[in-house]
């Protein structure tokens, strides 16, 4: 089985999480340090989430560390014990957002795996290029500049929140525009009449 080797950026981020958690857990001020039991419970909860989402097992540790990094940035460590107990708290929502963001990032990374130049396309060298050109031409005909930009950024691997930041709008608006753009292209390629939206 191939062993996962994190990148330099991943190693430095993981090291930062380990140092901050270690420092927080061994700090003299007990009120500023997260409860060791809370850290263990959060870790177990995260692992169950990664298993249920069918993420690769060799990524679970990195994913859990990323959740802790997000928690350190957004939730006071003395409130960590409440993220698994209270349903309607801001801390709980931030915790669930962190898990969801990490899970989606890993799932997207698994789906988007471009072919390396050494790998030959089995369908023929011009087919992929022709398909991309057909989609680009259709997009120029039926989509506005904003929807085209959203699809370009999506194809480049950007997440919806990143696109929203780039365009200065909300993630909900980006998701809505992306959905409408895809529907327009589907209608175009099926030859449906009266495409609008």
Q: Which structural category do the helix and sheet elements fall into?
A: mainly alpha
Estimated share of beta-strand residues: under 5%
Can you give the mean pLDDT? Answer: 76
SSE run: HHHHHHHH
Key descriptive features of the protein:
about 200 residues; mainly alpha; Arc Repressor Mutant, subunit A; 2 domains; about 0% strand
Describe this structure in words.
Keywords: Signal. This is Sigma-70 family RNA polymerase sigma factor. InterPro entries: RNA_pol_sigma_r3/r4-like, WH-like_DNA-bd_sf. This protein is mainly alpha-helical and 197 residues long. The protein has two domains: 8-111, no CATH class; 126-190, Winged helix-like DNA-binding domain superfamily/Winged helix DNA-binding domain (Arc Repressor Mutant, subunit A, Orthogonal Bundle). The chain is 66% helix and 0% strand. It has helices at residues 8-26, 36-52, 60-74, 90-111, 125-142, 145-155, 160-167, 171-190. The chain is elongated. It starts with 7 loop residues before the first helix and ends in a 7-residue tail after the last helix.
